[in-house]
Amino acid sequence: MSAKTFCKILAIWLLFTALFDSNVWAQTIKPGVGSESINLKSRMEELKKDYILKDDGTLNGLYIIADQGVEISFNGNIPKLISFSKETAATTEGVNFRTTKNTVLSVYGTSKCYQAENNIFYYEKGIGFEFENDKVCKIFVFQAQSGELYGDNIILPGIRAGEIYLNKSLSLVEKKWGDPESVTVLTGVSGGRMNFYDQTRGFIIITERNKIKSLVILTPVMATRDGLCVGLDANLISRHLGKGTKVGEQIIYKKLGISFLVKNGIIKEISLSEPSER
Predict the structure, then answer these.
(1) What torsion, rounded to 10 degrees, do the Cα atoms 247, 209, 179, 114 define?
(2) Per DSSP, what are the bridge partners of residue 122?
(3) Got the DSSP string for the chain?
(4) Pairing mode, if any, of strands 78-84 and 135-142?
(5) With contact defined as beta carbons under 8 Å apart, do 139 and 93 qualify?
(6) Tens of pLDDT along 187-224?
(7) Over the stretch 220-248, which tens digit does the pLDDT of each residue have?
């Protein structure tokens, strides 16, 4: 066999293996489902047969499949959130790692989504995106969810955010949103837990003996009646609420039951708790 013929055969073989490499084909991502080989119907024991799942060590059920550019948050044996970061990944709608934020918004729309500075999550579609330098750097897949509990999208200090009320049972939230994405037990607080719905819903719910004691709101789709929401200029806070108590990056209004985390002059988080006279 001549060297020329060998090179042709080698080139054809490399093209063939590239086209049919399961790692490439596995990265076509369907909202609310995942890829063909790694999806929300996968089970941990099945994935372990085909991939090396590395526990990230946080005890929050997060596993990494490095060669696939995949991270999976498990609820027991069942995936609840999958992120794809390999550059071969693309959604069935054609969004890939060259897609800009504005293009994502034009493809999936601007309503019924949770937008933060570097993230967009479409909770009714089960798809989300993280951006770096205005381009997609991660694609998230989760179970498609309804807009329940957002209600009127109003934050009432010391009372509620949408239909999530302080001092109500967390089970009312779990019935609508399912189990939290992750949970951190609070030491020194009897029955205290931080229940993270931050990735897909933009909420962290702090409970004590399953009762909601405080809320951390990360999504700009929720706002006070004065229009204060995540992402706005922090100077608007005092304009509407008067002077608050500044502690580090927090501006606190204990009597109202609301506080704001401010970074670089921008509201990053809004927290609700019971009003206090102290």
Answers:
(1) -30
(2) 127
(3) --HHHHHHHHHHHHHHHHHH-HHHHTTEEBTTTB-SSSBTT--HHHHHHHS--EE-SSSSSEEEEGGGTEEEEEETTEEEEEEE--TT-EETT--BTT-BHHHHHHHH-SSS-EE-SSEEEETTTTEEEEEETTEEEEEEEE-----TT-TT-EEETTTEETTEETTSBTHHHHHHH-S-SEEEEPTTSTTEEEEEETTTT-EEEEEETTEEEEEEE--TT-EETT---TTSBTHHHHHHH---EEETTEEEETTTTEEEEEETTEEEEEEEE-----
(4) antiparallel
(5) no
(6) 887 789 999 888 778 899 999 999 999 999 988 778 89
(7) 778 899 989 888 889 999 999 999 999 99
Q: Which two tokens stand for residue 8?
A: 């042709």
